[in-house]
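User: I'm preparing a small set of examples for a lab meeting where we compare how different chains pack in three dimensions. I only have the primary sequence for this one, and I'd like the structure in token form so I can line it up with the others. Please keep the answer compact; I'll paste it straight into my notes.
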Amino acid sequence: TKTYEEGTGKNAVSLAHIMEQVGEEYGVQMVIAVQPCDVYRVAQQTSIPVFSQHMDAISYGSNTGWTLPHAIKEAGGAGTLLNHSEHRMKLEDIAQARASAKSLGMKVIICASDVPITRAVASLNPEYVAIEPPELIGGDISVTSAQPDIVRDAVDAVRGVNPDVAVLCGAGIKNGKDVAKAAELGAQGILVASGVVKARDQASILAEMAKAMVP
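Assistant: Understood. Below is the structure token output for the 215-residue chain.
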């Protein structure tokens, strides 16, 4: 949901309900990644997994202004995004945050901007790695159209490191055609924000994307 107005506070709850309904209808797993301050309210009102958009590589202590993994867990968070291109992290911090998440029973999606980074973060054994060229994020051209090879190469890179890590595809995903192409290239899911959050009809576009994920 980034920090879009359409994905903040009560709007995040509304979107989560739509995702829940569409996911149940099509048998597709939906996960919503919200701002840390919205994790609790969304997790309280929906059955789909709620991820934080970020958490820091810290533990209890003097860390004013940082996002504590234990707090996300206690708020009902099922997992977190790490290293999104809009909130990049050092590899050592990604590794520490991943370790914290694992110890708390939380899942992790680590974002990567290119294939070498994809390979590096896959070695941390997250549940998911998301390949997202930053120049295409939020745009109208999907990575599956502009750079299909990077998706295919990212999938191959992850399989070479740990085939148990699922690969997600993001950046410019707008419709069912983009989702179908992502699956064709080997991605096991998608990471999407503006294509859904800012859509005039969130339910309709989610249904279109969900249909494309069903074999």
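A couple of notes for your slides: Residues 10-26 form the longest helix (17 residues). The longest strand covers residues 107-112.

User: Perfect, thanks.
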